[in-house]
Amino acid sequence: MLNQVSLMGRLTADPELRHTPNDIAVTTFTLAVNRSYVKQGAERQADFIDVVAWRSTAEFICRYFKKGQMMAVTGSIQTRNYTDKEGKNRKAFEVVADNVYFTESRGTSQGNSGYNAPSYEDDAPSEKPSYSSGTPDDFTIISNDEDLPF
Fold this sequence. Notes:
This protein is 7% helix and 37% strand. The chain starts with a strand and ends in a 48-residue tail after the last strand. The relative contact order is 0.19. The protein has 150 residues and is mainly β. The chain is globular, with a radius of gyration of 18 Å. The chain contains one helix and six strands. Strands 1-3-4-6-5 form a five-stranded mixed barrel. The chain has a single domain (5-35, 45-147), classed as CATH 2.40.50.140.
């Protein structure tokens, strides 16, 4: 069986970190993902997709991402049943994030002029960010685009 999702979109609100009764970190957020097809003469439409992230991935998202910022998410689709306030049975669809990625350069986030991407150089030497969200431990810090080998 295959259940794999890849999305790229903008956060509709600042993610908030919560904890379960067992003290497991969790965050839920919505990504606005533009549709690839636009009818002639019409405006581009977006789908608003609910995403949930757990543990260190949730902490990573809440620490480094803000409303309006573009992010990429890989994960899987999960469904769950629940009963609404009126007693009707409902089904919810959401993406469970396994990995999240930055997709913008520093300061390019639209609608969020105060955003600056995190600088790992600013972290204290004893602090090492958690990279369970897909970033390898053996990366090279590149200070600007001119240092890129391509």
